[in-house]
Amino acid sequence: MTEQEPISFPDGFLWGTATASFQVEGAAHEDGRGQSIWDRFCREPGRVLHGDTGDVACDHYHRMEADLELMSELGLRAYRFSIAWPRVLPEGRGAVNQAGLDFYRRLVDGLRARDILPVATLYHWDLPDTLGQAGGWLQRDTAEAFGDYTAAVVEALGEGMGMWITLNEPWCSAWLGYAIGVHAPGRTDMGEALAAHHHLLLAHARAVAALRSGPGNAPVGITLNLGAVRAASDHPDDLAAARRIDGNHNRIFLDPLFAGHYPDDMVEWMGDWRPGLSVISEGDAAAIAAPIDFLGVNYYSPATVAAPERALASAAEGLVGLAPEPGTFGDAYRATMLSRLGAPTTAMGWEIDSSGLQELLTRLGAEVPVPLYVTENGAACEDYRNCDGEVVDTERIDYLDAHLRAARAAIDAGADLRGYFAWSLMDNFEWSYGYSKRFGLVYVDYPTGERVPKASARWYKEVIGRNGLAGRS
Ligand code: FCB
Q1: Residues marked as catalytic
Q2: CA spacing 20 to 30 A to 320: which of 127, 211, 380, 452?
Q3: Atom of ligand 1 nearest to the CA of 169
Q4: Residues flanking ligand 1, CB < 6 Å
């Protein structure tokens, strides 16, 4: 390993960790919480590994005080959590469940009391099931209901809130949920994914408007899982395939949010599934482009793309991937996603390449007119407690160290990056992988609920304390 210099971050850089309601809270049937589309999805056979559910998760709902203490011990300056819509409005709209709001009020106050900035995401995928059953994100009404839900939340929590994030990774809600089918509601229709995509952006717009007219003055943003998309070669067909995936992952969000329109080349490409865009109404584009204060970026791994007919040529370069099945997302975009043979990966099988984060942040620094925050970044590892009861997750420390160096390099290249949130504070429910993947800085012993800070938690505390990284050899 090459020698690495100590580095520091700009003064006031915000250091945090992130979680999401469905992944940590549990208490799924308590204090008036309604069912979400993920509660339903977990119960459909074959959707989630081992049939795991969010019923108990990390039991954070009951252990909130102890978790707050843990955050304080880690020296966190910020905590990104999400608010469960069905805890606040069990039916998605209508009567507010005060007990749900009270839980988040205690959380916000508990964070403030410990000098930790509360950063709330309003939607991290747990749509109230009543709305899901009525068509979910295929319905324009869901976006309107999200605006009303946001108004109720900001009324109760606006005072004291540190930052607002409207949506987490709407790409996953629309495309994993409606085109690829591995997330709730598990549908596989490109036209539906497009309609869902537009309604999610509209929901963002309605939430921004509600937040702007509610109490408090916390900055408002959105979190996107934008891609560091690379073409497998300079062949024009590979470049065109990569451009389409860049269109689907990046420009289909950045253009409407910051330039007020969907990208022309994407609209042209859509063909058969373009009817999904017929849900657009007059006024939507302007609402979606209403100014925001920051952009949240979640990054885990880069994407390498080839045209399907070029997949064999790529294999000669050590890049492998399966030609897309007819009728799938890859087929619709005529794109094959490739993995580099022998490249290091996390326990998710995701390639580890911190240069993707540097590339992405540098690009956004040049293209986006607002400050940036890394709102998620981290690694799943095969963590275990050793005979001393400790979790020595050196691989995670290596991953985080490399990605923070990449973030710093992007700042040097001009990106206005203001903070970083490690995913995740603690091991939790990893969607269709259930509890089989551990991303936490803190280990969760699921049978007992015990929290065990990993070596990476102690390392992160030092990073925060020194506002930077120590040298490494
Ligand atoms: C992101 C999600 C987050 C978590 C990480 C690993 O896509 O926002 O909830 O599952 O991936």
Answers
A1: 169, 376
A2: 380
A3: 8
A4: 20, 23, 168-169, 172, 225, 298, 376, 423, 430-431, 439
**Alpha-carbon dihedral 25, 30, 36, 42, rounded to 10 degrees:** 70
In this predicted structure, the answer to whether residue 2 has a pLDDT above a threshold of 70 is: no
User: What is the chain's Cα-based Rg?
Assistant: 21
Residue with tokens 């690379």: 230
| Alpha carbon of 235 to ligand 1 centroid (Å) | 33
- Domains of the chain (ranges, CATH numbers): 11-466 (3.20.20.80)
User: Distance, CA 429 to ligand 1 centroid (Å)?
Assistant: 10
* Sequence-ordered list of residues with C-beta below 8 angstroms from that of 361, at least 6 positions apart, any chain: 297, 372, 374, 406, 407, 410, 411, 415, 417
Query: What is the 23 CA–ligand 1 centroid distance (Å)?
Result: 9
Task: Quote the CA–CA distance of 175 and 200 in Å, as a whole number.
Answer: 11
For residue 227, give both structure tokens. 């891609």
Grouping H, G, I as helix, E, B as strand and the rest as coil, residue 7 is strand
- pLDDT tens for residues 403-452? 999 999 999 999 999 999 999 999 999 999 999 999 999 999 999 999 99
pLDDT digits (tens, 9 = 90+) for 341-356: 999 999 999 999 999 9
Number of the ligand 1 atom closest to the C-alpha atom of 428:
10
> Which 3 state secondary structure label does DSSP give 77?
coil
What is the rounded distance in angstroms from the CA atom of residue 355 to the CA atom of residue 322?
A: 25
Residue with tokens 């209508």: 94
What distance in Å separates the CA atoms of residue 341 and residue 351, rounded to the nearest whole number? 10
DSSP state letter for 175: I
Q: Which atom of ligand 1 is nearest to the CA of 225?
A: 7
What pTM was computed for the model?
0.98
Backbone angles phi, psi at 49, to 5 degrees: -50, 135
- CB contact at 8 A, 134 and 78: no
Q: What's the CA-to-centroid distance between 170 and ligand 1, angstroms?
A: 11
Burial 233-256 (b: 16+ CB within 10 A, else e): beeebbebbbbbbbbbbbbbbbbb
pLDDT, tens only, 71-99: 999 999 999 999 999 999 999 999 999 99
User: Comparing 190-199, 317-326, 382-391, 432-441, which segment has the lowest mean pLDDT?
Assistant: 317-326
The beta strand positions in 220-281, using DSSP E, are: 220-224, 229-231
Query: Residues 410, 417: contact at Cβ < 8 Å?
Result: yes
Specify the 3-state DSSP secondary structure of 13: coil
Q: Please tell me whether the peptide bond between 36 and the residue prior to it is cis, using omega within 30 degrees of 0.
A: no
